[in-house]
Amino acid sequence: MEVSGSGTEAQTFALPVDSEHKATEFRLFSVAVPHMQTFHLSWISFFACFVSSFAIPPLVPVIRDNLNLTDTDIGNAGIASVSGAVFARLAMGTACDLFGPRLAAASLILLTAPVVYFTSCANSAVSFLLVRFFTGFSLATFVSCQYWMSTMFSASIVGVANGVAAGWGNLGGGATQLIMPLVFDLIHHIGATTFTAWRIAFFIPALFQTSTALAIFLFGQDMPDGNFHRLQKSGDKQKDKVSKVLYNGITNYRAWILALAYGYSFGVELTIDNIIAGYFYDKFNLNLHTAGIIAATFGLSNFFSRPSGGLISDLIAKRFGMRGRLWSLWVVQTLAGVLCIILGRMGSLSASIAVMIIFSIFCQGACGLTFGIVPFVSRRSLGLVSGMTGGGGNFGAVLTQLIFFRGSTYSTQTGISLMGIMIICCTLPLCLIYFPQWGGMLSGPTTRGITTEEEYYSSEWNAKEKEQDFHLASMKFADNSRRERGTRVASASSPSDASPPTHV
Description:
CATH class: Mainly Alpha
Distance between the termini: 10 Å
Low-confidence stretches: 489-504
Region (Disordered): 476-504
Oligomer: single chain
Subcellular location: Endomembrane system
Keywords: Membrane, Nitrate assimilation, Transmembrane, Transmembrane helix
Pfam families: MFS_1
Shape: globular
CATH architecture: Up-down Bundle
Main location: membrane
């Protein structure tokens, strides 16, 4: 499809696009440049980082014997594995806004890859904790993943794009539960001793992670029209100020509420990834391989559960707009909390597996529903808001593991049920999110003050910036997000002084 670019040359895209050159169709099995190629680079790189970050838990029974680790050592390391990414995700969001997702993602992946190699050198509780801490930084690639999808795909399908990319990336948390025990067994059978085999095994995720970074450098593209550096040099994209990006993101209360909610969907997912293999291994006296297979089913359901959340968000928005997105997130995540409580009260192996699988579907579906909302919170600070929400996920994992799964204060089974109660409580504030042009869970759109999409998104730019047309990209996004009104599409109109929308 040929469209008029912002410069002097026409551009051709394989997929139909909107006025921002974002794809309006999501063709899963396509590698069309740049939209679908970016999708595949994004989820594969995030998948690799997830494999690396959670490669240790399925081998913990072997590693703890080798390094003489206590339950407290293992709990502290689990907390460390997700705590570093809290701040890394905030930094990644700002980096995406300022430098673009391509450089931000590839740089972080390359910086953390050596730590995965160094895991094979761990020889004490301290070094074990440090490698888990620094490897966890790579989970911040989630932010670049979601930012990329929001810049490549139109508002009507952004929930699906975000859900599939993140869901397939999160598959790494389940896949590594299968991969690492198999790699360990293979190396052990070849002739390596038990305590040597687990060390050699970590070269596999390290090599995988390194190769994805190189692929992003070579084939990645920041936006449909090109990379940040070239667009800024040509004048097609303005270079933003870090202070403005930070201010607009941090002062938007919606971002904080979504961060809290995400802390008890994705944060719970991270917690389960860290504890579930050991839980089944110890509680039901299973062998390492069997416990790993059962634990893997939790993460592997991301293949369809998180994408389903994104799809549900987009489908409900067609009829009920943003209010439908908010209500569906609250319902699904609350049900996840109920299932988590039930999981902690199961006494048999078969019942525990069944409830865990259903719980995983709702928990991960809530993750997809969350990022069906995030792209609409702020246009100017999209990366930072994504980073704040993603960081909230890691913070929730840290807090939950610190309270319930560190040491002997609670049994793992009791901790799981109490975690379910926290899910329900931390989902309630979603009712406070309100978009004046679209409404919220408890009330419809306002009739005073900001009443249109243009007014909402242009409010992030001051008068001087508007005079220099810095806000025009936000106006295009505002026009493309009108469908968030749901069935009231014709109930509001653009202000007369807004830039006329461009349809492709």
